[in-house]
Amino acid sequence: MTFQLDSVVPWGRSFDEYVSMFSLTDTDLQSRILGCGDGPASFNGILAGRNGNIVSCDPLYRFSAEEIRSRISDTAATIGRELAENTDEFVWTHFDSVEAVIETRMSAMEQFLLDFSSGKRAGRYIDASLPQLPFLDDAFDLALCSHFLFLYSEQHDLGFHVRSIRELSRVAAEVRIFPLVELDATPSRHLQPVISDLESFGLQCEIVRVPYEFQIGSARMLVVSRVGSVPNA
Ligand SMILES: C[S@@+](CC[C@H](N)C(=O)[O-])C[C@H]1O[C@@H](n2cnc3c(N)ncnc32)[C@H](O)[C@@H]1O
To answer: What is the model's pLDDT at position 228?
Structure first.
């Protein structure tokens, strides 16, 4: 049986996982960063605490911390069960057990929940959804998208992926997306057509190895960059 979730769920990774998934350098971490689809990850809160320049956007942010907290506890039970039933679909070097995954993620999400209300007031958590974002051209140097685009290729079609990545490239000079596999760890059906479209639109695409692999065969990110001004849609 493959690892399946009924729909996109609130589940958040740790700061260290973000650094590995996107091969983030100290210079990257000092740039203006957009985390798109960050959900309840701790990346924003931790980076802001280190004087980073970070904004996250996600439709989840229309809810209160307490509403998000209760959805997280429903999700944790489902994910723990799915992981335990499908251990052979994952690489157990970063984590050595299902319990370690759940503990790391629950601790990251608790850090998010503690930061969320003040971060929202400070404008670091914005309720917004791809494929249209409420940011000016070039508002960011780097946009990161973890575990949303490509992972949910069955739920979101090629057109959605193309519009979303063009939009991310409008607001940020460089876009990094991880992983490039679907929920069952097969390569995303949209990856090659998306790259062809983006290249014909004048964007540069590169698939880059990263030092993070949890789903088997997933240790690659897509880097989309533009040279010069924002291409016209
Ligand atoms: C599996 S979670 C990943 C969370 C985080 N990026 C991480 O890796 O820990 C996917 C996130 O995508 C968000 N999402 C769903 N639809 C979206 C959209 N149209 N635009 C942006 N984010 C969306 C969900 O609310 C959810 O928080």
So the answer is: 67
Q: Measured in whole angstroms, how far is the alpha carbon of residue 71 from the centre of its chain?
A: 19
Residue with tokens 């995303």: 188
Q: Is the CB of 13 under 6 A from ligand 1?
A: yes
Its pTM stands at 0.94
Rounded to whole angstroms, the Cα distance separating 80 from 231 reads 43
Q: Of ligand 1's atoms, which has the minimum distance to the CA of residue 35?
A: 6
Q: Is 119 in the pocket of ligand 1 (CB under 6 A)?
A: no
- How far CA 72 is from CA of 76, 111, 185, in Å, comes to 6, 13, 23
Residue appearing with tokens 């984590």: 95
Question: 7-21, 79-93, 191-205 — which one is most confidently predicted on average?
Answer: 191-205
Which of 7, 8, 13, 215 for a ligand 1 pocket mutation test, highest count of atoms within 8 Å of Cβ?
8
pLDDT bucket at 75, cuts 50 / 70 / 90: confident
**Rounded Cα distance, 166 and 159, in Å:** 11
179 lines ligand 1 (CB under 6 A): no
Helices (H) and strands (E) in the chain, counts: 7, 7
pLDDT for res 76: 87
Compute the distance between CA of residue 1 and CA of residue 142 in angstroms, rounded to an integer: 36
- Would you say the CB of residue 58 lies under 6 angstroms from ligand 1? yes
